[in-house]
UniProtKB/TrEMBL annotation:
Molecular function via GO: metal ion binding; methylmalonyl-CoA epimerase activity
Pfam families tied to this protein: Glyoxalase_4
Protein name per its UniProtKB record: VOC domain-containing protein
Source organism: Streptomyces aurantiacus JA 4570
Keyword terms, alphabetized: Metal-binding
Record has Metal-binding as a keyword: yes
UniProt xrefs under PANTHER family: METHYLMALONYL-COA EPIMERASE, METHYLMALONYL-COA EPIMERASE, MITOCHONDRIAL
VOC domain boundaries: 4-138
Any one biological process term the GO annotation gives: L-methylmalonyl-CoA metabolic process
Length: 146
């Protein structure tokens, strides 16, 4: 079950300048930064709010590390802006399988590693009314305690 907005992914040309815009304009601070070579991004996660299930909602600022990456290609075509949305779930495998059964293309056979050790997959934007959609299960530290 998809329970929250995990993040909104925003493509930018210069991560440091964009981070500074969000800090100076809104007061959002960087919670985490990393490079994900598989995805071809350098990214900053800005935490917006925490949620009652132990998760949180973020802005994910994304600078491409190479031109042929998903974000690099998208930036060249569209310029800076909102690149994808991500829904949080406790069960990315189960939700991806259920959504695939509804005829939506799931881009990965198995979820891959995303921000902060999360497990992620993507739904094809052409099957989602033009919105690249990510499903995220946070790493265990962010799961609710039982
Ligand atoms: N949102 C909406 N539509 C998009 C899109 C996006 N982010 N990216 C591509 N498209 C559209 C294109 O506009 C194009 O449409 P037209 O044919 O009408 O022009 C079509 O999809 C194909 O686009 P493309 O430029 O040829 O790109 P590819 O098919 O090579 O790749 C996609 C598209 C979705 C398969 C690829 O971007 C992908 O695998 N994305 C998932 C991985 C990702 O985005 N990683 C970065 C974020 C990492 C993270 O969140 O942690
Ligand atoms: Co994302």
């Amino acid at each position: 079950m998809l329970t929250r907005i995990d993040h909104i992914g925003i493509a930018c040309r210069n991560l440091d300048e964009t981070v500074e815009f969000y800090r100076a304009t809104y007061g959002f601070e960087v919670f985490h930064t990393e490079v994900n070579e598989e995805q071809g991004v350098r990214e900053a996660m800005l935490k917006i709010n925490e949620t009652s299930d132990g998760g949180a909602s973020y802005l994910q600022l994304l600078e491409p590390t190479r031109e042929d990456s998903a974000v690099g290609k998208w930036l060249a075509k569209n310029g800076e802006g909102v690149h994808h949305i991500a829904f949080g779930t406790a069960d990315v495998d189960g939700d991806a399988a259920a959504i695939k059964d509804k005829g939506v293309r799931v881009l990965y056979e198995e979820p891959r590693i995303g921000s902060m050790g999360s497990r992620i997959t993507f739904l094809h934007p052409k099957d989602c009314h033009g919105v690249l959609t990510e499903l995220v299960t946070s790493a265990p530290a962010e799961q609710p305690e039982h």
